[in-house]
Records
---
Amino acid sequence: MQTAIKHITDTDIWVALESVKDPEIPVISVVEMGIVTKVASGESQVASGQSSRYARVTMTPTFVGCPAIGVMKKDIYDAVKKLGFEEVEVTVDMDTAWSSDRMTPEAKSKLEKFGIAPPAVMDSDLTEEMLDKVRCPHCHSTDTTLRSAFGSTLCRAIRFCFSCKQGFEQFKPL
Amino acid sequence: MNTEAIKDLLYKMADDALVIGHRNSEWTGIGPMLEEDLAFSSMAQDKVGHSQALYQIIHTVFGEREPDVLAFQRSEKEFKCCQLVELPIGEYDFSLIRHFLFDHAEALRYEMLTTSTLMPLAQLAKKVRGEIKYHVMHADTFLKQLANGSEESKARMQASLNYAMPYALGIFEKSAFEDTLIGEGVFGGEEKLQHLWLEKVTGIVTTAGLQMPQVDEAKIIYGGRKGFHSEYLKSLLDEMTEVTRIDPSAEW
Ligand SMILES: [Zn+2]
């Protein structure tokens, strides 16, 4: 006798992935970050009329050398596996290149509340202006300057705010 | 497509990135200031990441060994990096000049490769060129600053530039496959790259008030691309392998 199992859809996978956070920015999910590029699921026939349910998730790295990729890959695997799939495959590829423009508006506002200035929109190549006039996440002044394009993680730059005289980090436009 | 030609291109790029990445990481903890410490270690992490992505293409597309095996278990002779990246970090002004010369070449190379007919390479190039822009920006800022600093700092920058230039020109050592790569649309070739690079670098150097050294063809330091290396590569590779030998699961 077969047990009736609730049909799990791709939407369920997307919802489950909302609970997987970026380890470097624990308030933002991998979906909001734009790291997950594709989700697919279905059933494959295995022996004697039995079927096995599979899920495939594709992700793309923010920075190619990002050390958090391995952790995120494992967390994604665990979250999807918990839904009840027999087979889960998580692939990292660059078929879709990550750009900071892939971050959702919610992710950008969460980032600012977290104390990191969100990246400017990258509709063209990087320009000096994108690194200029960045709003301070503490006092919201735009009287700030780039101190170094390299911060505590690959995706962050270091800035200084002349208005509140504090340093802060900026998520780099990429 | 000509497999040997493409592998040769991928190996030299990957080896350059791996070796310069390890050299840059030597500044960790000893940089002239904390921000420079972070800059050099971040750039090192980027470069090692790029090398791994390139070894990954060699592995998946051409069926060669796993990326970490390619990085840490090939002999010195099998390495295709240019000698510029092998040199010890020296004083800060040398490391900075090398970073400036190398990263401009790399930025232009990836720019050219965004239209490569080798799809995974074109994809990687589109991604990496954005990251390298930050490296180039960093190099340009500090080059200008130090060249316009004291008389001493200017003189030191000029001396390092003079010393590094014959090595930097060695980046563009031609392989036996130039025509094949150009013909197949994989890569526009070293000659074109060198031309673009000279134009770019000369502009910035001159604006910063330094002199662009003129190097005779006979003085250019070639060999790296064909497996002939400086005395420094062997010990660097040994050090890198040592880390994996102690902890085989060592993170990149
Ligand atoms: Zn402020």
Note: The radius of gyration of chain A is 20 Å.
---
Amino acid sequence: MKEKVFQESIKIIAKENLGADYFKLSLSSPKISHSAKPGQFVELRVSDANIPLLRRPLGVHRVEGNTFEVLCEIVGKGTELLSKKEPGDFLDVIGPLGNGFDCDLPSAARQLPILVAGGMGVAPLIFLAEKLAERKTKNSKFKIKVLIGAKTKSHILCEKEFKKLGCKVKIATDDGSRGFRGKATDLLKKELSTVSCQLATVYTCGPQAMLKAVAKLSGAHNLPAQVSLEAHMSCGFGACLGCVVDTKDGYKRVCKEGPVFWADDIIWG
Amino acid sequence: MKAKLSINIGKLKLKNPVMAASGTFGYAEEFSGFMDLKKLGAVVSKTITLRPRQGNPPPRTCETPAGMLNSIGLENPGLDAFINCKLPVLVKTGVPVIVSIASESGWPEFVELAGCLDKLKEVAAIEINISCPNIRSTKHKAQSVKLISQDPKATYEVVKAVRRATAKTLITKLSPNVTDITEMAMAAERAGSDAVSLINTVTGMSVDVATRQPKIACVTGGLSGPAIRPIAVRMVWEVYRKIKIPIIGMGGIMDTASALEFFMAGASAISIGTANFINPRAAAEIITGLERFLIKNKIKDIRQLIGSVKSEN
Ligand SMILES: Cc1cc2nc3c(=O)[nH]c(=O)nc-3n(C[C@H](O)[C@H](O)[C@H](O)COP(=O)(O)OP(=O)(O)OC[C@H]3O[C@@H](n4cnc5c(N)ncnc54)[C@H](O)[C@@H]3O)c2cc1C
Ligand SMILES: Cc1cc2nc3c(=O)[nH]c(=O)nc-3n(C[C@H](O)[C@H](O)[C@H](O)COP(=O)(O)O)c2cc1C
Ligand code: FES
């Protein structure tokens, strides 16, 4: 089926600074909000000038009615310019783009989704958790586990939101200022060694090194894993062939065939 | 008042002089949701080779001031799959399809490609890409390989050979990575090319200072976007005064004003490249913008603009 993509000038409804260079924008677009799926992203123009030239990709963080949210970390000039935008300003946005997470796994067989987030990787996973939580029925044993890895306790994002959805959240920080001292992948290793995880499906987003480790761990336990990849994107909608990743079927465009892939299809360099 | 935008390139009649540049428009279907593709003057396909090419390893692109570097490496499905799977998609746009071709092995491959395409009525014209900076094998990645379009004799030979293989409109795409682009344009004209396209990307390089790694895997790549526009306009102007065949100008065209620069410098038509990535409606907006400019300035025919820059020499 051909999915619809929109290019629109969209109004910023609200903005929230979340500390530690993180901020959240709520954007008003019935079209994008109604068609977006977890794991998809949008391409934003952060300036009308030629520097920065290219759009910036950001995951769809949450959807509520006619608005959707993006969660962003300031890492360079583009995200810095974006952080200066205020409610009432308009942004030129293309979306929703890419192939998101596959949320339709046979629910009877797979009762345990494990979401692994590293840093900004939590951004698309809230939307995913919301969609997965809809599958929960009264007497099912269905339980979503969320493993969050962050630099320090002030870099932990979305903990409350996940808990509100009924997820079981575990936290690791690099400096041990909250939760386990270590990485999200350390939490996953511990999790997977328990018997209850035999029917788990792993969903993950975060830095490349973490994705690779998660893929390896899931593979070792014979668990299906979906990974949301990042690549430098010049267009975001399949036209430039710039964003490819090596897979078992040759190069695939992260922006079009991805950003979410099955971990065992990727050739992890 | 109505302004005339139509233009002829060889035997090819275009309803307007705005095309989508090779390699920057996917196979057109990626843009169907953004604009009415029927508005375009023509589409140029991604460059096709005889055999499939998987292209260069990632990362393949990075951003630079007012531009971008790419080293896609002519990823394409090869001639057969192109004809069977991609050409029909391009034809669906309803506008003339110009097929761009390149050779991995010298001019006989160009001749074979052109010979096959010559038989297809869906192909409106052939553009020979003798200027792609990304077609060397990755084994010699840091080594620059001489392009056909860096040698007037080689340019002449290839164009001449392809000319014999096809009666279709033939366009030769030139590289800016030369001392004197007019020599190459004149060689293409002498060999029977119906038009020249310029410019392809400018070879460039960018380093990530935190990691000391080149930002793209192939180390060097092709620079495109507004950053190269003055180079492109200058080259169009130089070539315009040396040849009689039409020039298809490109390089950093983002909007109507930058499109007009090219016509005034001597282009008969233009191609939109990198701008498609930033504003997928750019080509359609420029077509409307050109028409408005002509009407506002009481110019009846866009051909009156060609080479109209008021330069003394
Ligand atoms: C599918 C996808 C979803 C993403 N979702 C989020 C998100 O939800 N929240 C978030 O904070 N970040 C997200 N990112 C990362 C975000 O796009 C980059 O941080 C941002 O583009 C950096 O721009 P900059 O100008 O601030 O930094 P720059 O100084 O330009 O670069 C900093 C880093 O960002 C990378 N980058 C720059 N431009 C691009 C581009 N056009 N495409 C991809 N990477 C780029 C660079 O390679 C570099 O590693 C996502 C990236 C992708 C590919
Ligand atoms: C990602 C990318 C891929 C390209 N691929 C091709 C190609 O396959 N064949 C070709 O002749 N030119 C190719 N080009 C060059 C463009 O067609 C054009 O000549 C050049 O980018 C300058 O125009 P621009 O600045 O408007 O992009 C490519 C350019 C880009 C940015
Ligand atoms: S970013 Fe252009 S094809 Fe993916």
Note: Residues A 233-236, 238-243, 253, 255 surround FE2/S2 (inorganic) cluster (ligand 3) (CB under 6 Å).
